[in-house]
Amino acid sequence: MRRAQAKGWDAVGMPTPGNVTAALDEIGLDYKVMGDEIHMPCPMHEARTGKPDKHPSFSINSDAGYFNCFSCGYRGPFVVLVKDMLEIPHADAVMWVRQRGGIEKVKKFLAKKQPSQVDTSKQINEASLALYVTPPIEACGKRMFLPQDAEECGVLWDTKRGMWIIPVRCPDTGTLWGWQEKNERYFRNRPPSMTKSQTLFGLHSYEGDLAILVESPLDVVRLRSAGYTAGLAAFGAGVSDAQMRIIRDHFDSVIIALDNDKSGTEACARLREEWTGRGLTLRFLDYSLTDAKDPGEMSDQEITDAVNNAYSSVLARF
Ligand SMILES: [Zn+2]
């Protein structure tokens, strides 16, 4: 029944492949299309974290309309974005999307995802990483580490597209689950369904016992270049219970070094609340002597000071 209705919309000239982008144009958001994903700076970042999204952390699947900010965790179906951007009630946003055929696009996308139609040429295996190389010194230099640091952490580089390739592996076996592709403008998970909240970046390359938990895998590389070789990344501020349990399996204590912004601080408060008395000692990175947002922006000396001054749960100010 709905399908017939959708055809009706197509028949009156709705741009079928461009429903989502057409809607974004109408809302007035700037974006870049990359395959079936649309990228842009997160439009709700400032409202949620107090700071604008410097790198485009936000993507929308142009088929399904689902959106996600990997930095602040703002995510949901397209209708929620419409509601927030146009500041209208949910029911009105549903109407707005429905009038543009968006709901039908979601249904079509889900119907397409039958196992028989899975494209096996894009399956993830170790050989797929053979296309990528050690990151060049120029790209590494901008992030204050050396190619060797990247190599030791398993981070690779896509020369053709100028992108970091960050492998995501099973915590127990090291089996490749997929990877993240990113540069200043783009970010994408391959495959998009990869359950990175069930693992940690850095788990297969760390040395020593001074565990430091950060949000971004590239900050694990930065920590290594500053002499801290047991950095772990949770792939964002939304640290999961599974990730904390993995840390507890490997370490007695951990310095939590999530970003120095609203979502990072809120996550620290939550971890302190949930993880006190569970067999893992938590300390928190001291950002008080730096303006940096994360360890990736800090000098070696700033990192050393912030680590040495890391404070206990008891002294936490959040
Ligand atoms: Zn955001």
Structure overview:
With 318 residues, the chain is of the alpha+beta class. It folds into two domains: 2-115, Zinc finger, CHC2-typedomain (DNA Primase, Chain A, Alpha-Beta Complex); 128-315, Dna Topoisomerase Vi A Subunit, Chain: A, domain 2 (3-Layer(aba) Sandwich). It is built from twelve helices and 14 strands. The protein has helices at 2-11, 19-27, 45-49, 78-86, 90-98, 102-112, 137-142, 147-153, 217-225, 241-250, 262-275, 300-308, and strands spanning 32-34, 37-40, 58-61, 67-69, 75-76, 156-158, 163-169, 176-182, 187-190, 211-214, 231-233, 253-256, 281-284, 311-312. The strands form three sheets. A five-stranded antiparallel β-sheet has the order 1-2-3-4-5, with helices on one face. A five-stranded mixed β-sheet has the order 11-10-12-13-14, sandwiched between helices. A four-stranded antiparallel β-sheet has the order 6-7-8-9, with no helix packed on it. α4 crosses α5 and α8 (147-153) packs across α9. It is globular and about 55 Å long. The structure holds zinc ion (ZN). Zinc ion binds at residues 42, 44-45, 48, 53, 57-58, 69, 71-72, 74.
What attributes characterize this protein structure?
318 residues; alpha+beta; DNA Primase, Chain A; Dna Topoisomerase Vi A Subunit, Chain: A, domain 2; five-stranded antiparallel sheet; five-stranded mixed sheet; 14 strands; 34% helix; binds zinc ion
Weakly predicted, low-confidence segments? 1-17, 105-121
CATH topology of the largest domain: Dna Topoisomerase Vi A Subunit, Chain: A, domain 2
Question: What does the largest sheet look like?
Answer: 5 strands, antiparallel
Give the strand tally.
14
Ligand types: zinc ion
Q: What is the C-level CATH assignment of the largest domain?
A: Alpha Beta
Structural class by sheet pairing and helices: alpha+beta
Q: What distance lies between the first and last C-alpha atoms, to the nearest angstrom?
A: 52 Å
Q: How many domains comprise the coordinates?
A: 2
CATH architecture of the largest domain: 3-Layer(aba) Sandwich
Oligomer: single chain
Strand content: 15-25%
Q: Helical stretch count?
A: 12
Order of helices and strands: HHEEHEEEHHHHHEEEEEHEHEHEHE
**Could you estimate the helical fraction of the residues in percent?**
25-40%
Identify the overall geometry.
globular
Rg over CA atoms: 21 Å
- Give the strand order, joined by hyphens, for the main sheet: 1-2-3-4-5
